[in-house]
Structure formats: structure tokens, C-alpha cells
Input
Amino acid sequence: MPQIIALALMVCSLLGLWLLLTRKTRRSRWLVFLGILATIAGLLGVGGALNVNPNNMLSFLSDFLIVAGLFAVLALGLNIQWGYTGLFNIGIAGFFGVGAYVSTILVQDPTLMSVGTGLEGFQGHYFNLPFAVGLLGAMAVSGVLAVFVGFATLRLRTDYLAIATIGISEIVRLVVQNEPTLTEGTRGIPNIPQPFYSCVVHNVNNPAPPCQLLGLQLPQFLTPAQYSWFYLVLILVAILLTFLALERIARSPWGRALRAIREDEDAAQSLGKNNFGFKLQALIVGAVIMGAAGSFYAHFIKFVSPEIFDPVQRTFLVWVMLIVGGTGNNRGAILGAFIMWGVWVSTSFLANVLPATIQAPFGEIDVAAQLFGPLRVMTIAVILELILLFRPRGLLGEEKQTSLLRQTK
Amino acid sequence: MPLLEVQQITAGYGGGDILKGVSVRLEEGEIVSLIGPNGAGKSTVMKTVFGLLRPRLGKVLFAEQDITGNNPDVIVRKGISYVPQTENVFPSLTVLENFEMGAYTRKGGSRAKMDRVLELFPDLKRFLRKKAGALSGGQRQMVAMGRALMLDPRILMLDEPSAGLAPKLVDLIFEKIKEVNRTGVSILMVEQNAKSALMLSDRGYVLATGQNRFEDTGKACLANEEIGKLYLGG
Amino acid sequence: MQARQFDWVKWSIWGVIAAGLIWGLFFADKGLQAIFDGVHSGSILLLGAVGLTLTYKILNFANFAHGDILIFGAYVAFSLDWWLTNALPSLFPDLGADKAALQWVAISLALVGGVMGAMALAWLIDRVLYRRMRHSAPVVLVIATFGMALFVRNLVQAMWGVGNRRYDMLVSTPQVYGFGDVNLDGAQEFFSLATRPWNELIRTPDFHYSFALSLNLMDIVTLAVAFCLAILLHVFLKYGRTGKAMRAMSDNVDLARVSGINTERMVAWTWAIGSGMAAIAGVFMGLNFAVIEPNTGAKTLLPMFAAVILGGIGSPYGAMLGALVIGVAQTLLVAPVTAISSQYKPGIAFVLMILMLLVRPQGLLGEAGRKG
Output
């Protein structure tokens, strides 16, 4: 029975994608919206029907939405840098990871690290500050990193910028990996506290005192299992705020200047605009957003390690999301994030479809260990290439915005 | 039968049509100039003939053979050579190597042909091993023309050969063009320097805004007052 | 004719390089060995960097998949090597008897196979993907190569697994070659006299040098092969008909077409040379650094780009020079010579690259005034 549901949902999502690809947004809004829903639901459903225990369905869904939401924030940050301003930033993982680590270091309570994990001997310093401080700290440090990166690289041609940002991300990762007194190195930092946890969760096993706000006691109205839905609300708020801010920016003079730089740098320069300044600002704003995403991620997963700088998931996937959704389009960024995260998660259910071992000329291949991970990444890569070949504008295309150049022509 | 015939070409670069039904004819042994104001589409005619641009409408015939839209390397083999206006030499290659590139499609050696080309441009003999990018503007122009002549073309197309050259060099270049023509190569030329070009040419076409405006012999064009006012700067 | 101004920046950079070498040789602990190791790893890097610079200049985009094609070739060679060491003795019993000879024959043949495999893959990718994007913006192409990089890397992982692989070669023990000891007492006295006012600050170096190098047969073979290939490439580019056409194309693609050069054929040649040399680099990485794993190629991408930029994009000689400089810098500036952990080697390549981009974007062998 689950197989049939899975098949039906798969057909649904393919139909949805077809609708998305062939209908023009303006004329058939509802069909497109339906297409989006069908695609995402279908992708989720494929995975869920095949693999997830019905009891865990809800938490699977909330986890999916939260992480997809985080990626949406990342994609929005990239959109400011690349979609608006044309900055080829392949160092997303660097800003994201820095945000995660800074937030962790600021918020972590050293006494908690060993609880439940049985691990000892942590070397770092932690400050046990409230979540808000962690979040702001993450955004600030990420922004500062962007300043350094900007001064070193923004005067360079586009593809040099790409190489440089890869390098920067690498260096950040190397530092994190090799300085255990700062970051615990490859061990990672476990048991990261979660925002407002004790304020909203009533934990029967381990009750914590409720929080006070302006003299009023806040009710602890959630069970531990429901906390992720609270987190999801936080994430959705973050997405909404970021989206609104970005939309505002797009229509502002600053936004138009950024677009002018993307269209034709030399022309923008000749208009008397300070190219470098604008590019730096865009880089910083994008980095700040990515740092915030990192902070939210760390507190959701409750664990950070140098793996967080993984270029495949944190950088490549975000780029694919933005390109698939539509470069320069904020809705596209969010859409692309949800769709591609759906694709990524569904590929993990390939495990059910493939046989356990495959015979090859030089021996047996253990599918789970050897084929599985690579096939997932190869699928994403192929999707990227297909989009680049046949629909480089992405699913939603670029928004019609006026740039400074168009206005003065 | 004309050696080269451009019939009613309509072509553009994607934005809009630059040429709107242009026709040009080149008889064997002639020197024909295309003159006209900037943006008239003169260079576009050249590019269309040489296959760097595919026309929307119209045909290009070379010795009655349809070569519309053929690739440049095919057209070169058929006997038409092209000297672009700017960046017409390989700067990091020596003069000698530039000539070798001109004869690239010829399987055999290029020595014999090179000697004949050097007879036309004897000044270049001492620069053979010098990088083309290090030469002066006039010398580079000669290298560019020499490269184009390496394959014994029947037609040599020149895009503004005098551009950026001092007046003395302009005369020299036009002298060379005449010499080349005397060896039997037909010349199709685009020129800003309309007066000098027309003095040299057997016939001239005046193009403006992508269309033919006038066509007459070189001397007649020069004598024509209207052309003189509009396009020859008085 | 441009006025010849003295190119301060270029000569300062050369000066810094020279000073670094002198420091390494005479003032640093174990400097000579570090320099040799640097030249050694630089020569391997060189093979990869040359291919990268050629595709960058002639095809006009940065190929982020270069490192992964490199490792693909290395893995193809790996499979062939193991197969050959098993299959050859039954075909040529004499060979089976002599283990060392068998290994050398097998690896040589496997190398050829690896090169052909890499060339085939690179050509296939170009044919299927890049060819359709010839007229796209270079940025789009770079993104496409980024995707292909991950694709190839994971293809390798799918086909050969995640673990380390080793070529079937006996690791020969390093020999130590002593070049004798040099004691420059006179120089030491002179130095301490000359710097007497600043004796607190400047430590008089020892001026007792024992020049000794530890190296093994594979090091020599690697250096020799890299050197020969560099010369071959030089000869090909300078005197070969196709080589000249490739240089012409890298100057001006349109003019090359106008001269009748078949540019698609030149593109195929560029991929062939680039990926072929990359495969050789990959095999030597495996032979010299004991193991290869699917991420090895990606790890070398950054140093290769650094080498290309240091030397100047489009100049094969620049790539060779850049690779040697990066190789030496990476060994000279980390432990045991300095206090920086050897984990930071990629960071050194990166910092050098950024410095060069800020100071002289067209590289050491590029022309002044051009923006790279």
C-alpha cells in the first residue's frame, strides 16, 4: 500500500513540476500555485510513504520544514549577493558555519556539555548568554568576516571572486578544525541549548522554572515533542522578515544601484556610483543573513562540528536552490529551497529502491556504503546542469525590476 | 558574372535588423568600397559575407555558388580572406607565426607563399621574429593584410584598413592595397576615409541606415556633390 | 609603442621570491630539504596547473572540475595497474619473475590508460554540456563546471568507494645524499662584526651547513617526468602547427576562426592536453603521496588555481613557475621549518593567490597594465 501512495505522489509532483515549467506565472497563477504544492507534497510523500514510521510522520514533517526554511534563508542571503549584485560567492558555507559557531560559543553552557553524552575534556570557553545575544553575535561576526573578505576580493573579476571565496571558506574550516581551544576541533560541540526552551516547554521529567516577562510568568504550554513546531514558527518568522526586508530593498534606490552593478559594472561606475562600496554592503548584508541562518541551525541540531562547512550541502545545494528557483527572485529563492530540499530528502529514500549489493566486474559493491551517497549528489548535479541548459532563468525567472541603468537610458 | 554578389541581405545581431535589404556586387579584379556614416552597417555586410553572422534574409553568392551562412573556415578555403578592423593580428605570435596562421588550412608548407607576401611588404622582413603585438600600428596593419593573403584569396575584404593610422601611413596602406589588387586579388573595402578609398576604387557603394543609397564608379562618387556634402565631409 | 617604465611590482615580487629561497637555503632549519620537497610537490602540481591555465585562457572559463578529472584519471590508472600486475605475469612469465620490472611496466601502461580515460571523460563532458553553452556568460559556465566537479567526484566514489587506494608499487626507501659540509667561519665572524650594533636583535646564523637531501627513486622519476613533459609542451606550443594554432586561439578566438582555424578541433586539443596532463599529475600524486581518495582532486584545486594565477592566466610557463613557487612556499612556510602547522598548507596557497591578485592580477608572466 505505501508503494502505491508513493507512486501516486510521485506522479503528482511530476505533474506539478510540469505545470511550473510550462505555465507563465502571470496568466495561470492558481495552476502554478497548485503546481508548487503538488511538487513539494509529492516529493515529501514519496519519502514519507516509503520510509517513515507513521508515528514519526509529524516530526519528520517539522524537521523537513525547519531545515528547508533555513535553506530558504540562506538562498535569500545568496540572492542579495548574487541575484541582485552579481557577486559570485562560493563561500556560503564559511559564513553559515561562522554564524553557527559564534552563536554556539556565546550561548553554550559549559556545564551542559557532558550531560547525557558522557564526554569529557572540553577545552573551549563558553559564555552561557541568552539566545538573542548568540543570534546577534553570529550575525555581527559573519558581517565582520564579510568585511575582510570584501576588502580582499571584491575588486576582482567575477571568477576570481569565486575562487577566492572558496579559499576563504576553506581557511575558516581549517581554523575551526585545528584550534580545539576555540572550537573543540573535530570533536564538535554537543548539547547546544535551544532558544526559549525552558520558557515554552513543560518537561515532566526534568522540569525547569518558567520564564518571567515583565513580571508575568510565561506558561510552559508545549511538550518536548512539540518544541520543533515552535522552532518552525521562529524560522517562518525569520523567513518572512528576511523576505520582506529583501523585497523592500529591491524597490529601494540602493537595490536599484545593486542591480545596475550586476547588469553592467562599467556603466554603473560611469554613473558615478561607488561600486566597491555597494558591493561590500551587499556582501555584508548577505553574510549577516547567512550567519543568522547558521545560528538557527546550530540551535536546532544542537550540535556543531567542522562538518558544517561541507561545501556540498551548504554551498552547492544553496546555489542549485537559487538557480532552480530563479536567480534574482526572492520568491524563487524560497521556492527553490523547499523544492531542492525535498529532492535531496527524497533521494535518501533511494535506499529502499536499490538492491543491497550490486555485482560489478571487480567485485561486489555495497550499495549503502558506496553508491548511495554519491548517487544523491549526482542527482542534484544533473538537475543543476539540466536547468542551466534548458531553463537558466529558473522556475520563476527573474523579477522585472528596474535598475538604475534602465532608468537613465 | 560577378565574383561576389550580396543579394538583398537583411541581418542583425538579435536586437533588430542592422541591414535591411542591402545588395553589393564585386566583379573580378575590381576594388569596391563601401562608405557611409557610422552605424550604416558597412562592417555588418563584411561579417555577413564572411559567415560571422547569419543573415535573416538574402543570399551571398561567390562565383555563383551560394555561401550564405557558411562557416568562416569554409569560406577561407573557398578563397575569400577577411581582415577585421581591430585586433587583426595575433599579438603574442611573431610576424612569421602570424603568416603561418594565415596559411593554416593549407596542408603543404607556406614558405613559397610567404616569400611572395614579403615581396609585397618588404619592410616586414626585419620583423619576422618579432611579436606582432610589439609592432607599430602601420606595421601591424601590414601583418594583418599579409596574413590574409597567405592563402591566395580571390577576394580580400578589408574593414577600415586606414583606421587609427597617421596620414602618411594611410597613403602607404592604400598604395599596398593597389599593389595587391594588381596581383589579381579583388578587393572589397569598408572605409571611413571615403575620399582616399574612392580615389582608389573602381566602384563605390554608399550605405546609410542599413540600406543602399548610391552606387557609382569611384570617380563619379567623388564628383557627386550630394555624396560629397553628406558623407565626404565636404 | 608604449613607454617602457620600470615594472616595480614585478621585480619586487621576484625579489621576494629570491629572498625567500635564500632564506630557505641558508637561514632556515632543514631548508634545503624543504625546498627540494617543495620543488618535488610543485612539479606534480605543475602538471595539473598547466592544463587548468590552458582551458582557462582558450575556452575562457575557470574549470572547477579540473581536480576531479585529475583524480578520475588516477583511479582509472589504479584499476588498470592492479589488473595488469595480475594479468601480465601469465602473459609474460619472465616479467612475472622480476617484481620490480613488473611494477614499472604495469604502472607505465596504467598511466597511459588513465590519461586516455581522463581525456575521454573531459571530451564527453565538453561535447554533452559545455559545447551547448559556448555562448553563455562565463559565470554560467563556471557554475556548470562546479556541478560537474561534484558529479565526477561522486562518480569516482560510486565506482571505487570512499576509502584510500594505493598503487601497486614498492615504496623505495629514501636515500640520503650528502653534499658535504660547508663551514663558513669567516663569514660568521664578518656577519657578527657587521651587525654588532644590533647584536641583541639579529642572531648570527650558524654558517655551518650540512647540505644533505633525503630522496628516493620515485622523487627522481617524478621530477624527470614533469620536466620532460614541460619541455615537450613547450616544444609543442612553440613549434608545432597545432600548438601555434592553440596560442593563436588563446590570443583571439575570432581572428583564429577568420584565419580558417577549426576552433572546435582546437577546443578538443585543449581538453585533451589539459586532462591528459592532469591524469598524469593524479597518478604521480598517488605514487608519491601513498594514497588517493575521491576528494584528493578537489583538495588540489585551490593550489592549482593559485599556481595559475601566480604565473598568469593563459601562460603555461607561468603555470609551471607558479606551481613551483606554490610548492616551495607550502613546504618552506610550515613545520618543521616554521611554527605553522602543516594542516594550513592550502591556506598558504590561498594567501599567496590573494596577494598576487591584489598586487598584480595578471600574474608574474602576464603583461603589465592588463587586468588579468
About this structure: The CA atoms of residues 95 and 128 of chain B lie 5 Å apart. Chain B has nine helices and ten strands.
